Amino acid sequence: MKFNKQQWQWIFYDWANSGYGILVVTAVLPVYFKAAAHQNGISAALSTALWGYANSAGTLVVSLLAPFLGAMADYPYAKRRWLNWFAGLGIIMTMILGALSPNAWQWLLIIYVLSAIGYSGGNLFYDSFLTDVADYRQIDALSATGYGMGYLGGVMAFLIFLTVELGHGFGWLNDYGIARFSFILAGLWWIIFGLPFLKNAHQRYSVPKEQKPIVASFARVIKTMRHIRQYRAAFWFLVAYFFYIDGVDTIFTMATSIGSDMGIDTTMLMVVLLVVQLIAFPFSIWYGWLANRTSTRRALLLGICVYLFICLQALHLKTLRDFWLLAVLVGTSQGGVQALSRSYFGKLIPKENSSEFFGFYNILGKFSAIIGPVLVGIVTQLTGESTKGAASLAVLFAVGLLIFLRLPAPSD
């Protein structure tokens, strides 16, 4: 499917902030912070706890405010301003991370929390722009291509960092310097590839302008919460989404721990992570194609069923080959499930209130990452086998699948 200039700019915003996702959130800053905290006499247990608190704080702020922020952004010409504000906050804070000394470990946490608020808030408005830049026929392919390019962009940024890392900083950077370089790289990646959309994003749909927008936004959010049954399909989809996306996120976040328990070394786990990201690129786009050829509903059902199969097969995880097989399967469906969930929801909601509704979508996406890790932890502790803990996630996919099957299908 051919995309216009605005749609490609929207797609490349996903490419742009993916460097932050893989370099700052996932691969480098957690290790860098642990090393900096240790250098300053902070115990491993305390630094891990502080890192956990920082992650929770950053996402919690945006998640709780998401519907209200979305309602504010639904006024005419407001959505791009809010996107620019949060993206700007994220970019500036990410660049500051690259300027901080490892001795300033407290500031590392504070600046990271602010960068995470910018990143999460920016993604809320970016997602809600989907209904502005795509019509009903294009929405699946565009959402899927955005996710696919996001995965590819993250891999490209990570490979640049990896080149510097394997080159030992080429004589210019020590270990701390290489880590700080990665944060500057993430910030530059974000601004260079994201600037076209940040500059030119056009909001097509909006609610009427109010004289008291803050008060009116609160009132609209409360009204939506009270009358959510008017949007029955959207409401029940969010319930189904809460369960199955919890499983998707938990598998991704717990995979390295499960691999370590199997005796797989860290280098191999990093290779697996990169391969999964690379596989997710073409398969995310393929899911968009499949949705157009069949329906969004059928393609999304396929992705959920693949994950259900992955969980059940986790009971048979014994060798590195088994781990690779399931990792590849995750790569085939991870981006597809995320992308089509976003576009499916976009088809169910009123376009003029898209930011407000995506605020609720944002909340469910963030708070869903609670049940899965706890479930895996309890089952693993009771059985002594992390593979059985992973298999227990089948319950979340089964519940999400059953609820999703009862939803009326939007006309594709």
TrEMBL record:
One of its GO terms (cellular component) is plasma membrane. It is found in: Cell membrane. Residues 233-412 form the Major facilitator superfamily (MFS) profile domain. Its main location: membrane. InterPro entries: Atg22-like, ATG22/LtaA_families, MFS_dom, MFS_trans_sf. The chain crosses the membrane at residues 12-33, 53-70, 82-101, 107-126, 147-166, 178-198, 233-255, 267-287, 299-317, 323-345, 357-378, 390-409. One of its GO terms (molecular function) is transmembrane transporter activity. It is a multi-pass membrane protein. It holds the Pfam family ATG22. Keywords: Membrane, Transmembrane, Transmembrane helix, Transport. Signal peptide: none annotated. PANTHER family: AUTOPHAGY-RELATED PROTEIN 22. This is MFS transporter. It comes from Limosilactobacillus mucosae.
